[in-house]
Structures are given as C-alpha cells and as structure tokens.
Amino acid sequence: MDADWLVFHPTPKKPDFRLPAGAVDAHCHVFGPEAEFPFAPERKYTPCDAGKDQLFALRDFLGFERNVIVQATCHGKDNRAMVDACRAASDRARGIASVGAEVSERELRDMHAAGVRGVRFNFVKRLVDDTPREDFLEIAARIQKLGWHIVVYFEAQDLEDLEPFLTQLPGTIVVDHMGRPDISKPVNNPDFQRFLRLMEENGNIWSKVTCPERLSRQGPPYDDVVAHAAAVVARFPDRVLWGTDWPHPNMKSHMPDDGALVDFIPRIARTPEQQRKLLVDNPMRLYWA
Ligand code: 0GY
Q1: Residue 208 · residue 242 · CB < 8 Å
Q2: For an engineered disulfide with 71, which of 78, 98, 161, 240 has Cβ 3.0 to 4.6 Å away?
Q3: Cα(153)–Cα(175) distance, rounded to whole angstroms?
C-alpha cells in the first residue's frame, strides 16, 4: 500500500444508535485482497487489502443487514472483487460497477445476475483519467433496459460545469457525498443552494448524505457537517441514502471509527420516519425492488 495510506479502524465502537431492522450500508467498497484480485495498473492509489470477509464482519458488528458495494477506482474497470463480494453475500449485497463503452451485453447481464444495479461515473480528477462524455451517455443509454441507475462522484466546484450533462442523463442519478460541498460555507451559500436546487428541479436525482469524515474541517464528531446533511434529509427524505464508505479510501486527516459514524445518523435524520426512509425504504426501493 502507499506509504501514507491510512488503514481502516481495527476496533470500531459498538454504535449507541440502534439501526432500524433491515438497514442498508449503501456506500462501501472492497479492496482486493490483492493476491486474489490485483489492483488496476491505471490506479491513482494503492490501498491496504480490505476484502469481503472484513466488510461482512463490519456489517454484522454495526447491525446492518445489507451492503451496496461501490467499485473503487483502485480496481479500475475490473469489477471482479466487487462482483465476487456480491455473489458471496447472496441477496445481502448489491453492486455498482465501473465500465467503459466497450463493455459487452453479456458482461452487463452477468453482473446483473451477481447483483449489480448501477454504474459509477467519476469526475474526481485525483481518482480517474477523463472519460469522454459521449462514452458516459452511451453507457447510460445501454443500462436503462437493465433498470440500473447511475452514481456520480464530483466535487462542488465542478457542479456548475456538470449540471447540463447531469440533467441530460436518463433514469435515476445518485450523487455521492452531497456533491462534496465546502462545509465551511453555510447551508445558504450559493454553491450548496445550487446543489439543493438541482435536486429540487430534478426528481430523478438522489443524494448520499455520506462522508462527514471527508467533508469536516473540524474532525470527529463532525459537528460542522450536521446542518448540510440534515438539510438534504429534511428536504428530500425519499431520495437520500447513507453508507459508511468503509474502508475509507484516501483519508489523510484521520481514520474514522465506523461505530461513531453510525452514531452520526440520528443527528442528520432526526425522526424515526426519516431514519427508516434513509436506511431501509430508499435503498430497498432502489436496489432490491
Ligand atoms: C469514496 C471516496 C473516494 C474514493 C473512491 O473509488 C474510489 O477510489 O470512491 C475518495 O478518495 O474521495 O467515495 O470512497
């Protein structure tokens, strides 16, 4: 692994917050293990091993029932580790793949059978090389017949440029980590308002209210992220998802305690109804219907 790589927390706390029955960790990854699933040559980072057995042990320890495993960029478009984890979890995991326009119908169908329900389009320059927008549009059109959706990862400063493209995409679009707002600016700042407006005007756009540990300037317990995430949950309770982001790629400031991350949930989803929608109803509708 990279010399400055931070390994996931070895002994997370048991959460004080009791997750509702059937809760879904809707954003997590697997890395390798490298001996079985080598990392991609074009990767921008080399992580520690963090395989499916460790992920499933964390799922059970925290009290989740299911996982949505998002293909991590260190595996490029080689989805084998993610697909293997989905298969091993039987019906308790779904996957999000990274594919190129060259992906065959057969590969798409095989991934669907394993539990894949979407593709991720990544615009974060430190993680991936550029993909032509025509390729993304072609992939987006092809996955519609499978009923898949599109997960997009971008940073706040890129939203203005991306907006016409995002609103052109068919089907359900899920934005990672609220579009990575600058949370040192208040909720009513024009950039975050732009994001909220995007969701308001496009009923097909969802958001993961994830990664306080990435967005926070203050560190745990991430007080500075509460207002932004709570605003998204309150306004769009039927279009939000939550996940741990285990094993937390590229965290440099600190490694979060996954149990403490679960304890963050009731601070942003304040009623039992909001919690049930965020953790159970919404992910079940999108991934298991
Ligand atoms: C995340 C965030 C990051 C990395 C990846 O696939 C990835 O490599 O998603 C990041 O570095 O911000 O959502 O896991």
Answers
A1: yes
A2: 98
A3: 6
**How many separate domains does the chain show?**
1
* Ligand 1 atom, smallest distance to 176 CA: 13
User: Domain of 76?
Assistant: 24-288
Distance 126 CA to ligand 1 centre (A): 10
Q: Which residues line ligand 1 (CB under 6 A)?
A: 29, 72-74, 127, 176, 245, 249-250
Nearest atom, ligand 1, residue 74 CA: 8
Amino acid residing at 158: D
What CATH number does the domain containing 177 carry? 3.20.20.140
- Active-site residue 4, yes or no? no
What is the pLDDT averaged over residues 142-171?
A: 97
Average pLDDT over every residue of 154-171: 96
Output the six-digit token pair for 155. Answer: 């940073």
pLDDT of residue 119: 98
Query: Cα Rg for the chain, rounded, in angstroms?
Result: 17
Q: How does residue 131 score in pLDDT terms, banded at 50, 70 and 90?
A: very high
On whether the CB atoms of residues 67 and 23 are closer than 8 A, the answer is: no
